[in-house]
Amino acid sequence: MQQCRLEPPISMSSSALFAFALLATLLLSYATVIVRLGEVWWGNADYSHGFFVPVVSVAYMFIHRGVLIEGFNRKQPKTVVAVGIAMLCIGFLLRLVGIAVRALPVEGYSVIALVAGLILLLCGWRALWVMMPACLFLLLMLPLPGGFVMPLRSGLQSVATSISVFALQTLGLPAIARGNVIVLPEAEIGVAEACSGLRMLVAFTALVSALAMFVERPLRDRAILLLCIVPIAVIVNAWRVVVVAVATYYRPGWADTVHDWAGLGMMFLAIGLLWGVLWFLSNLFPTVATSGSKNLTPNMIRSVKAERA
């Protein structure tokens, strides 16, 4: 009788050790990139939120760690392994390109490609799909490409100037726009690059994206929140310009103080508007949670009441 010899399966500890060793190696190889990103976050106020982006992504992964563990304990098909290795190769290729052209954002993209590739290689497609929000959120820790910043900043300046002049004229103030300068009867207010609203837009994008990741809302509501990022950021920045212009018109000596306080209040106003959007969505698409059942829509509730009647 021929005996069948079974090979012992790889233990969980050995697999985990391999995964941690691979992750540690990648972190060490990207130490210079991490340090350079930290310098950008520390030295450029437009990206000061970057310190919190990796923390939020890790927190999201920790909350959904069950999917990672489940996928890690399952042997991945050869096609998944092949695609995962291909993603790792793409990540390393992006790193080489970033080094060659001296572009920090490109090196940052390679980090995200490697993270996604590792998740796919070790945990499978389902884990990558669940962790995709955390991977995409890491994009917000990277500085915008230089060729994209100036056109975006210039466009935001023009929009802020136009909206502010319209609001001031609606309030009855004799204001006109001359380029990115708001002309009042006895003063001129320049909408400088620092007042373009780019910093507000970048930070608010990170805040709303994090909220959309963690809030227990339907996908429809989360998508609407993301679509509201740019309008709210533009409106809030225009509000600051209008407040400063009104102060300059009526109390010129208060202009600098009002400018500083309005800048501090921008994020609070944006959060208030965001809360208003959530409140509106809750009333537009109400749901009723019942024990042991899924949320019921208004049509379902009316049907149940009709049957009981």
UniProtKB/TrEMBL annotation:
Keyword Membrane: yes
Subcellular location: Cell membrane
CC terms in the record's Gene Ontology section: plasma membrane
Annotated transmembrane regions: 47-68, 80-103, 109-142, 197-215, 224-249, 261-281
Main location: membrane
BP GO terms, sorted: proteolysis
InterPro entries: EpsH-like (IPR013426), Exo/Archaeosortase_dom (IPR026392), Exosortase (IPR019127)
Topological relation to the membrane, as annotated: Multi-pass membrane protein
Keywords carried by this UniProt record: Cell membrane, Hydrolase, Membrane, Protease, Transmembrane, Transmembrane helix
GO molecular function: peptidase activity
Pfam families: Exosortase_EpsH
Name this polypeptide is given: Transmembrane exosortase
